[in-house]
Amino acid sequence: MKALLLIDIQNDFLPGGALAVAEGDQIIPIVNQLHDHLDLVVATQDWHPADHKSFASNHEGKNPFETTELLGLPQVLWPDHCLQGTSGADFSSELESRRIEAIFRKGTNPEIDSYSGFYDNGRLKSTGLADYLRGKGVTQIYLAGLAADYCVYYSAKDALDEGFETFVLEDAVRAISPEGYETARKDILERGGKIIQSSDLFLR
Ligand code: VGL
Ligand code: ZN
């Protein structure tokens, strides 16, 4: 079984949003065409409380995109984004949502960030996504969404660690930084993941 995993296609990561990813909106028409080519569609949603420690605003004297440590892990400090219950945390209204069977929220623990859809960055807690997918008989995961160098990347690494055959749909992701994406891309390939185009999926 093949699952499409849609990562954080939320207003705050789209142009005009609090942590906008350049061209993030361009993936949406592509993503919307993918649903019928896979057996199962699942989405993740970044979902932070206001006191989340990944927000620069919760660290005195710190600005967005500076770094610090959280629970001993390096942490980029972000602008406030994807606040629980706000329109910035909503999925884009352009996103086809009818086939999304489950939504996994992450980033709810204020003490630690959570890029992957599977675990927080310190692996303190699982979201249950891996067991959910295994329970559905999924063996292959196709990733699309935002941002390619953070949440897509971390989700791809965990998908590989969890033993799924893992494909990143390169034309259906966009990154915060081009250099970050280059590093992520190489690492995913080294770990045995595959980088493909969505058109490759239409031919399968
Ligand atoms: C993300 C930074 C902070 C992402 C989420 O979805 O890639 N990036 N929170
Ligand atoms: Zn976040």
Automatic annotation (TrEMBL):
Example GO biological process: pyridine nucleotide biosynthetic process
Key words, A-Z: Hydrolase, Metal-binding, Pyridine nucleotide biosynthesis
KW Ribonucleoprotein (keyword) present: no
Enzyme Commission (EC) number: 3.5.1.19
InterPro entries membership: Isochorismatase-like_dom, Isochorismatase-like_sf, Isochorismatase_Nicotinamidase
Isochorismatase-like domain: residues covered: 3-198
One GO molecular-function entry: metal ion binding
Pfam families: Isochorismatase
Pathways per UniProt: Cofactor biosynthesis; nicotinate biosynthesis; nicotinate from nicotinamide: step 1/1
Similarity annotation: Belongs to the isochorismatase family.
Name listed for the protein in its UniProt record: Nicotinamidase
